[in-house]
Amino acid sequence: MRLFGVSIDRSLLVSAAIAFASALTAQTLKHRPPETPATPVVAPSSGANPEAVVSVTPVLPQGTNLQVETTRHYPMKVNEAIEGRLLHPIYAQGRLAIPENTLLHGKVIALEPDRKARWRARLRGDFTPFHTVQLQFNELELSTGALAVSTGIAANGAPVLLLAAPGATLHQSFLARYWTQAKSRMHDRVAYVTAPGLGDRALLVLYHQLPFHPERIAAHTMWSFDLTVPLVLPDLPVAAPPLASPAPAELAKQEIWSVYALLTADLSSATAKPGDPVRALVVEPVFDRDRQLVVPQGTVLVGKVSAAHSARSFGRNGKLRFTFQQMRFPAGPDRAVQGSLAGATAESQQALSLDTEGTITPRNQSSAIAPLLLTMLAGRALDEDGNITAQTGVASNGFGLVGRVVGLAAGNRNIAAGIGYYAAALSFYDNFLGPGRNVIFPRNTRIVIETTPLRAPVLKPGESSELP
Question: pTM of the entire structure?
Answer without folding.
Answer: 0.70
